[in-house]
Amino acid sequence: MSKRYFTIGMAGHIDHGKTSLTKALTNVDTDRLKEEKERQISIELGFAPLYEDEELQISVVDVPGHERFIRQMIAGVAGIDLVVLVVAADEGVMPQTREHLDILGFLGISSGIIAITKIDRVEEEFIELVQDDILGELKGTVFENAPFMMVDSLSKKGILELKELIIATLKEQEMRDAKGAFRLPIDQVFSVKGQGTVVRGTVYEGTVEEGQQLKVLPSGHEVRARQLQVHHQPAQKAYAGQRAAINLSGVSRDDLERGEVLVSSEHFIVTNTIDVAIRVVEDLDHLVKQRTPIKCHIGTAEVMGRIVFFDRNELKEDNGEILCQLRLEEKIVTKRGDRFIVRRPSPQETIGGGWVIDPRGNKYRFGQQTIEELEKKKAGTPIERMIAALYEAKSLTVEELIKRTALDEVSILAHLEDDQFVKITNKEFALASVIDVIEEDIKDRLEEYHEDNPMRPGMNKAELLQTLQKFFSKNLLEFIIENGISKGLFMRKEQYIALAAFAPHVPKNWEKRTENLINELKKDGLKVAYLNDYIKNAGIPDSISFELKRFLEDQGVIVLLDDQYAWYGEHFQDAVRKLKEQTGDEFEVSQAKEAVDLSRKYMIPFLERLDSLGYTRRIENKRVWRKN
Fold first, then answer.
1. At residue 472, what are phi and psi to the nearest 5 degrees?
2. Is 311 exposed, middle or buried (0-12, 13-18, 19+ CB in 10 A)?
């Protein structure tokens, strides 16, 4: 079974014991900042490892509860898989608890546990009243059937039982998609002396590994993941559901900010106009009018904008799901299905939240026709559902498309005739746009490989596939490579793949010395010195000598007799020709020495090389010429 990674969140009113509960569960104090210690409230997100075994790794996010820090709270819960809603036994449900409940519901977080804290401070009868109060608040929410746990962080009552419940719940839960393109919304940016820029966040989807080339959107900065940490421990990879800190090269601390997104693919959309389905809180304090200024919280981004209705000019109460548009003042990174929260900037209050129907919103006319069009988008036409499924999975069979889209086979087969879809095997399909992006990625990887290894014939195909197979199926990659070869973009030589326009060559700064080496070897004919002596005398460093020998042999410039001697290529061919002319179908070593006039130290390696190249075959003390 492959390992699964989850992040859980602690949410609730200020001073209800979230940080203390996190510490009791993990033995980690997540209040790191001086201000947090002095004011005894959480300002930034706090993270701690909760549990790990062969199957699971669980992290905890301690979310700030104070109203002023609602932005950090939304940034934290946007990436979690399960929430522990914390309510203090001595206070019960408070305004912040209700707002957190609304936000969790809007963000689509349906897995939850209710932890009643500080139970040692009150009588048992009072705890029952608090529980009834909470049940009343949870009625009609996704948490109305969530289990209750009674805990006290100081005495550790109920802590072990809560931890066991969290683990058991997540063992039954599906983890985030680790197969898609990597996406990490950045919630913290800082610099470490001697290391440079570091970003931190929860991996929403996909996988990232040390050394991988990435991009920061919307800014477009190209970076490399120099080092990774998970729970302050070095890691080679980070997976969907994990908290990760990534040391980036190619960018400074001042170039990045919270809200940007670190990605591994060009597939992600940068936009400032999104079509959405939104619900509002039940008890709005203020009227929301057409084009009301709002703050949109999506992922870890907080962006100002306006809400645009197409079937009303205002709303004051819960009218069910409303199809509308958010026009934002800054670009964000999002895709269909992403969750968001909308708040009023002044006076501050949560208006509502929902999900993205289409990240590429256009300008529409006010009226029922636009609502009908948005309804179609929301439901998704058959072709849109197929595109979304293939966009996510990269390649699927017809059977897999049926499962993912809930469409029948006849409908799917009819739509697969569209030019957007490409048949990559007898059963498997992919999007033409995805193929183009992957082809460009392979092209970039080969360009970089050729630049780093100019003397090699190309990149080993197995190595190329291995670097990409964690993101895409082997069938899809094989199709793209073969298609690229047929188009004249790539070429194949034995097991190597290269750009069609590439020709192996000696690096410019070593050309003259290599020429000198070859001339000396050529001048000495068949009675050569050690090859390494020629290399050393030519002033060629050991660091490139192995690559150079392999390159010169691949090009036919030299022929390696063994690991000590090499002949100039034309001299070798002359020796083969001379030996063949002066011997019959078979010959012995003594006959060969006489024909070519060589001592044993050259003759034996020469004859063994003839065997390995397939010119001859040794039978006891004789060699037989092979027929071409």
1. -135, 155
2. middle
Tell me whether residue 246 is exposed, middle or buried, using C-beta atoms within 10 angstroms of its C-beta: 0 to 12, 13 to 18, 19 or more. buried
Query: Which pTM does this prediction carry?
Result: 0.61
CATH of the domain spanning 269-379: 2.40.30.10
**Domain ranges (residues) in the chain:** 4-171, 183-263, 269-379, 380-505, 508-625
DSSP-derived 3-state class of residue 183: strand
Q: Is the peptide bond before 49 cis (omega within 30 degrees of 0)?
A: no
- Structural tokens at position 479: 């199709």
Tell me which of 3.40.50.300, 1.10.10.10, 2.40.50.200, 2.60.120.1140 is the CATH number of domain 508-625. Answer: 1.10.10.10
Q: How far apart are CA 560 and CA 548, in angstroms?
A: 12
Do 248 and 196 touch, CB atoms closer than 8 A? yes
Provide the β-strand partners of residue 198: 190, 247
Strands (E) located in 3-81 = 4-12, 46-52, 56-62
273 membership: H or E segment, kind and range: strand 269-280
Per DSSP, the residues of 325-355 read EEEEEEEEEE-TT-EEEEEETTTTEEEEEEE
Please tell me whether residue 276 adopts helix, strand or coil conformation.
strand
Q: What are phi and psi of 113, to 5 degrees?
A: -135, 140
Q: What is the pLDDT of residue 89?
A: 84
| Contact assessment for residue 529 and residue 567, using Cβ atoms and an 8 Å cutoff | no
CA angle (407, 310, 347) in 5-degree steps:
115
Within 8 A by CB and 6+ apart from 508, the residues are none
Fold exhibited by the domain 380-505: Arc Repressor Mutant, subunit A (1.10.10)
Quote the CA–CA distance of 485 and 497 in Å, as a whole number.
9
CATH superfamily of 4-171: P-loop containing nucleotide triphosphate hydrolases (3.40.50.300)
Domains 4-171 and 183-263 share a fold: no
Neighbour-count burial of 416, counting CB atoms closer than 10 A to its CB (0-12 exposed, 13-18 middle, 19+ buried): middle
Sheet holding 82-88, edge to edge: 46-52, 56-62, 4-12, 82-88, 112-117, 148-150
* DSSP secondary structure letters along 348-397: TEEEEEEEEEESS-----SSHHHHHHHHHHHH--HHHHHHHHHHHHS-EE
Q: What is the pLDDT of residue 73?
A: 53
Cα–Cα distance between 547 and 488 in angstroms, integer?
27
Which residues are 238's β-sheet partners? Answer: 208
What CATH number labels 183-263?
A: 2.40.30.10
Mean pLDDT by 10 residues, the chain (628 residues): 77 76 79 41 57 85 55 59 85 75 80 88 81 83 85 89 92 72 87 84 87 93 91 84 87 92 81 93 84 92 95 79 95 88 87 87 91 84 85 86 74 89 92 91 91 87 86 90 92 91 85 86 88 85 82 85 88 91 87 86 90 90 85
Please give the backbone phi and psi of residue 133, each rounded to the nearest 5 degrees, phi first: -60, -45
Please report the DSSP string for 486-521 in residue order.
Answer: HTTSEEEETTEEEETT------GGGHHHHHHHHHHH
Predicted pLDDT of residue 333: 92
pLDDT reported for residue 7: 82
Do the Cβ atoms of 83 and 104 come closer than 8 Å? yes
Q: Please report, for residues 13, 41, 42, the alpha-carbon distance to residue 37 in angstroms, rounded to integers and kept in the order given.
A: 18, 7, 8
Residue 20: CA atoms inside 13 Å, Cβ hemisphere, count?
21
